[in-house]
Amino acid sequence: MPSRRDEPHGRSLLSDALRNKGVAFTQEERQRQGLVGRLPSGVLSLDQQAHRATTGTR
Question: What percent of the chain shows pLDDT beyond 70?
Answer without folding.
Answer: 91
